Amino acid sequence: MIVVIGAGAIGLAVAWRASQRGLPVTLVDPEPGGGASHVAAGMLTPVGELQYGEEDHLRLGLDSRDRYPEFAAELADLTGIDIGYRREGNLSVAYDGDDLAFLRDQHDFQASLGLRTELLTGRECRRLEPMLAPSVRGGILAPDDGSVDPRKLLRALLAACEGLPIVRERARELVVEGGRVRGVRLESGEVLAAERVVLAAGSWSRELADLPVRPVKGQILRLHSPYPFLTRATRGLVRGFSMYLVPRPDGELVVGATQEELGFDSRVTAGGLWELLRDARTLFPGITELEFKEVKASFRPGSPDNAPILGPAGPEGLLAATGHFRNGILLTPLTADAIADLLDGREPPEAVRPFGPGRFAPAEAASPGDDR
Ligand code: GLY
């Protein structure tokens, strides 16, 4: 038996892919389809959000982004649920001269890596997104990036996992004997026997295994527009601060997100909301007319290098699928395929090889492929 701890997007997708290969899987989660996945915005923007020094992350993100069309089509065929995958491009816009200088550097960096992006004037940005403020100075269009609706994704993955046992309890600890995983002790004290365990518990993974994952709090809000407000996911730089807006065809507009190192502090704060709305209004003055629907705080599973931790970890039989930080939804299709490969005794895709847990313990093996 394989136990997957965590039934967010990553855990559910791993369970689905593993069960497609005929592997026996049980999911453990007190709230399947909840956690950070339920709060996520759903940006698929490895190019638009590229950071200096993260070329390996870029390869990972591009590989997973490009799996989405097939992944979405397969889920729709199986479950009848459209997960709202759209490849409408990603726009980054600059508010002032310093923000624009930063975006110009970013465009040079993207071009140096052979990525397809376009530097736009303020007028060109407004032609793409007419609700943008006249003061916006310029931007970058990354035409191959896109978005997905994480709540529809979760519904589809839950439907795809129908028939698999789901234990609605928190996992308290791993049961390890002789250096091997033997099972999972649940909150009730009951032990679920398992030869292999996939740890996909997001920020809570550290409570179950020795992995350098920490919660990075994000506050995020949802508005509703009765008329088309925005066409594509748009990232704004406003006086050096970064925020984003993600529109959906049904009128939902997600505005995110704060990034706070406060442990498991789940409070929504006036200051967090104010910062998001202040910058959103600076870029899109019309936002104040929209209906407020929801605000939530959740926890991104951060790792020391902002990249996921994928592969054999600690006791034999344990596989990590955690630490996805800001990119859990983006990296869901690739993570699921890679972990299913490892469970199935196959080589995982090349892009995941730099991201084994061993990279944080130099004496040990350093990649999912080498760790086995
Ligand atoms: N992926 C966006 C965020 O973490 O805020």
TrEMBL record:
Residues 2-342 form the FAD dependent oxidoreductase domain. It holds the Pfam family DAO. It catalyses: glycine + O2 + H2O = glyoxylate + H2O2 + NH4(+). SUPFAM superfamilies: FAD-linked reductases, C-terminal domain (SSF54373), FAD/NAD(P)-binding domain (SSF51905). The keyword Oxidoreductase applies. Keywords: Oxidoreductase, Thiamine biosynthesis. Its EC number is 1.4.3.19. Residues 348-372 are annotated as: Disordered. Pathway: Cofactor biosynthesis; thiamine diphosphate biosynthesis. NCBIfam families: thiamin_ThiO. This is glycine oxidase. The gene is thiO.
